[in-house]
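Lab notebook, bench 4. The sequencing result for the construct came back, and we need a structural model before the next group meeting so we can plan mutations. Quick request posted to the team channel:

Model the 3D structure of this chain.
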Amino acid sequence: MGILSKSVSFCRYIVQGELPGDFLSWVDARLQKYLFMDIDDTAQEKSVGWVALGNLLETDFQQGVAHQGEYLTFSLRIDTRKVPAALFRKHYLLAEAAQLRQKNRVMGRALKAALKETVMQELLRRQMPQPQLYDVVWRPTPGRLWLFSTSPKVREVFETLFRETFELDLYLLFPYTLAQSQLTSESAFDALELLSPSLGTPIQSGGQDD
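Done. Here's the predicted structure in token form:
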């Protein structure tokens, strides 16, 4: 679900690092460098990159399309193509049978491995990649970012690409890191370190008789 959906789920991050003076132009250039590259006409299994918010076809960031007031908005696009195991097994057995008829001898391990790779590449070319979009909203000041997905796999892809793109530190925001971000003194940090998780105290039912 994206930011424009009726219901959304998201993760919050803290972004830390020194921002350049020409920040907006720099952001456009970095997004452009790591934009999404189409793999429809290839046999690649996966492609990852940035596109305009909610528009999987828009990959031109030169006109400031990511600028929304004090926010930056764009989307992570992940295209993947997969070959179902049963489909691969079928076509591999067909190819293996054809090889046996042609050569009239048992195939060795190396030949089987090469044949598997050939069959997989051929099947990948026939599979259309499935695109997925995950929206991103970034408020550079005070360094807050929202990724509209809670999937650990999507988070891993996003975090890797974001760090590579902007060369900034990115930290998932949960209660502990949120508390850290609000503290200003060393003694407060030390006190936070001493805290231990608690499930809370159950509320006892009952009360005084009327």
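Residues 205-210 have pLDDT under 50 and may be disordered.
Will bring this to the meeting.
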